[in-house]
């Protein structure tokens, strides 16, 4: 396959911007029950304020220019059964020639821009910590990548896309970092290509919802049997309970009727804003979102190449393919970072069943969007895992992260 | 309470109609996967076609005039702790003075017009079957009723509104029919007011768990030994599919109603798809006509409180008590059940019988969730059988047996 890489500059047309403005002008808002707060969902006052800013004050062209400071590209990636998909990605190389190739994988409602704050940290050169060449793609159906046209684009296909992209970039061996669907994909990259192209992975979303079993994880099973939960673990169980009972409505709809939901997400910027903003707030740890920051995030969905409705299909396809809840494990080194306001916060003995866990880090604050909320902490964890003296030092032959 | 009843005609403003058209013109559609069919949700071709018709060709004013031929009213109903709500309702009396007063309670995504096709049947006078005075309200937050402003408006509050409405209309004793939330609210009306004001109830959506040995020992023993019928097994499969694939709306509406409310309020196409999916999935190959669908959706779009208010009932009831729908406080008042095969929640007969003093059962070969709309003759026929001469609930309302004649004791 010839090199189809093209540099990419985000440039939303004036027509699209104007169409958005016209919709915002015609926005019709619901009422709200007195004193609702966040109990019923996104508060009306927040939506009104964000809507007003979106109409007047939020400068998409300025946001776009900031996005375009990131080195972005597109290229054709072949996916078996689906032909070629045009994939958009950030690719920032380090000045360190032997930097470790790292693939950053986002989730829903995330996107490639979640890597933004990590980039300078991960690509920085220093004798004190390793450096990385970072690739952050827009997953198929998200951001500025294509969406497949046919049913059946499941986890295995996402994994194939990611691996083919890294290989096309000349990274025959690499490591992976991901949260949310990025965690699911990282774990499947490990089980599919572990010890081949994929050498290690790190996740900030240890999505394990069952305790260790005697047969599969005897060591963790016994540890679990005799070790009392810490206060943090008990809090994590409660947080997980909240998510599974109160925070999962979106997931139930997305995994069963993504198209039905898609009409509102495609047609109404306010609907899209509320649907995503709810997660930006509920899944983070008191993160002080600025209005323009939120609007940039939502705009990436609004202006995405396949449209926002496509982004929720991953829920459906992976469920229909029976890819949940069991994800096969791998022997390659795995690192976990625990953030207290993540949406699934398992006790350590449960989390360790994810794989060959060689690195753990527990944080006192932070939530689901760790790369965005806690970039220094997350970068420090990744550096510690892969740096000199770290448990995954030198996993990629010839690229130890230092010159 | 003074009589605040006013005659009501739907009269959507020109500005509102124009506004809808402006929004429809700006509709931005999603893509769709090849050959998705109904697998992923409401198909794009359907939604495109319906939006195009809604924009051009569908005549709301004509439809409005037709609806306004049905006698409608509003009146203020005081609800303990919630102040006064202005409630909209159909009230169609029979020519038979001693007709049986019947309250029809809709659900979601239903509305007051679900009773429409049954009205001429139920109110018809004949020596061969009973006649009814029919009241069909818009539940608070639906149609042209006000929505409550405060938190905590739950099942008992809906039941209170319904009961007070009937009393305000002079129906000190009445019977009630409901499906969907109408089933749940009817059950509460019976639990709260049974034998005082409510004399019998009927539902086409009985929701119950298996009999417990503690509360229904007789049914429990039968439950252990009696095999399910073919229809019941088919019903299980049907219900399971619905639970697995059709419950997303329920999970969202019962946890984050405001969040989904923005979609329903702001996007006509979004509202259309959200409801249309249920209109098709939950019916039994009912041949929906486009204008019929658009009228249904328009009632939501133009509703007094806006469509977002309609989904709050899920949150208020389920957050208060996740097991509320299965709760069965036994009442001795007569209960009638009609089983339609494509109802999304189909329970075996034994389970349904735990809901109360079941005196009437009917099983149908065709029909689904919106029975009053899909199978009006069947449902109205069941009510006639239940309440007619020789029927198990004949004469439950003293002095109002549904027939012209001697039995007009007041």
From TrEMBL, chain A:
Protein family per UniProt: Belongs to the peptidase S33 family.
Domain of life where this protein originates: Eukaryota
SUPFAM superfamilies: alpha/beta-Hydrolases (SSF53474)
Record bears the keyword Phosphoprotein: no
Protein name: Epoxide hydrolase N-terminal domain-containing protein
Active-site residue list: 180, 315, 368
Source lineage: Eukaryota, Fungi, Dikarya, Basidiomycota, Agaricomycotina
Pfam families tied to this protein: EHN (PF06441)
Taxonomic source organism: Postia placenta MAD-698-R-SB12
Epoxide hydrolase N-terminal domain: residues covered: 6-115
UniProtKB/TrEMBL annotation, chain B:
Assigned protein family: Belongs to the peptidase S33 family.
Protein name: Epoxide hydrolase N-terminal domain-containing protein
Keywords, in A-Z order: Aromatic hydrocarbons catabolism, Hydrolase
InterPro entries: AB_hydrolase_fold, Epox_hydrolase-like, Epoxide_hydro_N, Epoxide_hydrolase
GO molecular function, one term: epoxide hydrolase activity
Domain Epoxide hydrolase N-terminal: 6-115
Active-site residues, as the UniProt record annotates them: 180, 314, 369
A Pfam short name: EHN
Source organism of the structure: Postia placenta MAD-698-R-SB12
Source species, domain of life: Eukaryota
Lineage: Eukaryota, Fungi, Dikarya, Basidiomycota, Agaricomycotina
GO biological process: epoxide metabolic process
């Amino acid at each position: 396959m010839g090199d189809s890489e093209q540099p990419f500059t985000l440039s939303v047309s004036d027509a699209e911007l104007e169409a958005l403005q016209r919709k915002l002008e015609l926005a019709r808002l619901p009422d709200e029950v007195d004193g609702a707060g966040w109990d019923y969902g996104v508060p009306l006052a927040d939506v009104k304020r964000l809507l007003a800013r979106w109409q007047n004050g939020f400068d998409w062209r300025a946001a776009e220019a900031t996005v375009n400071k990131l080195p972005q590209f597109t290229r054709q990636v072949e996916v078996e059964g689906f032909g070629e998909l045009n994939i958009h990605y950030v690719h920032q190389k380090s000045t360190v020639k032997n930097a470790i190739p790292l693939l950053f994988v986002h989730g829903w409602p995330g996107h490639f821009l979640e890597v933004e704050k990590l980039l300078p940290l991960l690509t920085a050169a220093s004798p004190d910590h390793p450096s990385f060449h970072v690739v952050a793609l827009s997953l198929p159906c998200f951001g500025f990548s294509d969406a497949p046209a046919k049913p059946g684009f499941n986890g295995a296909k996402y994994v194939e896309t990611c691996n083919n992209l890294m290989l096309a970039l000349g990274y025959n061996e690499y490591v992976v970092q991901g949260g949310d669907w990025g965690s699911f994909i990282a774990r499947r990259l490990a089980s599919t290509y572990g010890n081949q192209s994929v050498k290690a992975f790190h996740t900030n979303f240890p999505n394990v919802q069952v305790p260790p079993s005697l047969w599969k994880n005897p060591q963790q099973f016994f540890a679990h049997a005799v070790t009392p939960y810490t206060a943090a673990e008990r809090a994590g169980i409660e947080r997980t309970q909240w998510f599974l009972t109160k925070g999962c409505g979106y997931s139930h709809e997305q995994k069963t009727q993504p198209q039905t939901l898609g009409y509102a997400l495609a047609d109404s910027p306010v609907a899209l804003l509320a649907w995503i903003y709810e997660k930006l707030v509920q899944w983070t740890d008191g993160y002080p979102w600025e209005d323009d920051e939120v609007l940039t995030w939502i705009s990436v969905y609004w202006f995405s190449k396949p449209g926002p409705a496509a982004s929720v299909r991953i829920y459906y396809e992976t469920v229909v393919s029976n890819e949940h809840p069991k994800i096969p494990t791998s022997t390659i080194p795995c690192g976990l970072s625990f953030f207290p306001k993540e949406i699934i916060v398992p006790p350590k003995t449960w989390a360790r069943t994810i794989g060959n866990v060689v690195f753990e880090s527990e944080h006192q604050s932070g939530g689901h969007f760790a790369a965005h909320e806690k970039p220094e902490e997350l970068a420090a964890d990744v550096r510690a895992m892969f740096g000199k003296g770290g448990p995954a030092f030198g996993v990629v032959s010839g690229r130890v992260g230092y010159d | 309470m003074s009589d605040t009843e006013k005659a009501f005609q739907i009269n959507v403003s020109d500005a509102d109609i124009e506004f809808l058209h402006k929004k429809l013109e700006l509709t931005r559609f999603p893509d769709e996967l090849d050959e998705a069919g109904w697998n992923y949700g409401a198909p794009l071709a359907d939604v495109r076609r319906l939006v195009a018709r809604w924009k051009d060709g569908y005549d709301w004013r004509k439809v409005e005039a037709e609806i306004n031929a049905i006698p409608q009213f509003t009146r203020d109903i005081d609800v303990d702790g919630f102040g006064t709500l202005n409630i909209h309702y159909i009230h169609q009396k029979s020519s038979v003075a001693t007709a049986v007063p019947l309250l029809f309670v809709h659900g979601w995504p239903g509305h007051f017009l679900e009773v429409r096709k049954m009205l001429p049947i139920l109110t018809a006078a004949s020596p061969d079957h009973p006649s009814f005075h029919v009241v069909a309200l818009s539940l608070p937050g639906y149609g042209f009723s006000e929505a409550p402003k405060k938190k905590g408006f739950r099942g008992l509050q809906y039941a209170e509104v319904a009961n007070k409405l009937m009393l305000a209309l002079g129906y000190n004793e009445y019977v009630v029919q409901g499906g969907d939330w109408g089933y749940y609210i009817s059950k509460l009306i019976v639990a709260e007011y049974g034998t005082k004001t409510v004399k019998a109830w009927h539902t086409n959506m009985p929701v119950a768990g298996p009999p417990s040995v503690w509360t229904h020992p007789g049914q429990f023993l039968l439950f252990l030994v009696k095999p399910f019928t073919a229809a019941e097994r088919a019903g299980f499969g049907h219900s399971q599919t619905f639970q697995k694939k059709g419950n997303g709306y329920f999970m969202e509406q019962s946890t984050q109603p405001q969040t989904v409310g923005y979609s329903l309020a702001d996007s006509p196409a979004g509202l259309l798809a959200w409801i249309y999916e249920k209109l098709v999935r939950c019916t039994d190959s009912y041949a929906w006509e486009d204008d019929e669908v658009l009228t249904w959706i328009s009632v939501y779009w133009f509703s007094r409180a806006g469509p977002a208010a309609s989904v709050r009932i899920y949150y208020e009831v389920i957050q208060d008590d996740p097991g509320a729908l299965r709760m069965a406080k036994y009442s001795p008042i007569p209960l009638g059940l009609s089983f339609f095969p494509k109802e999304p929640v189909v329970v075996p007969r034994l389970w349904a019988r735990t809901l109360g003093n079941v005196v009437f059962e009917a099983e149908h070969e065709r029909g689904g969730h919106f029975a009053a709309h899909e199978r009006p003759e069947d449902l109205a026929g069941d009510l006639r059988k239940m309440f007619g001469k020789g029927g198990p609930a004949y004469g439950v309302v003293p002095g109002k047996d549904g027939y012209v004649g001697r039995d007009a004791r007041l």
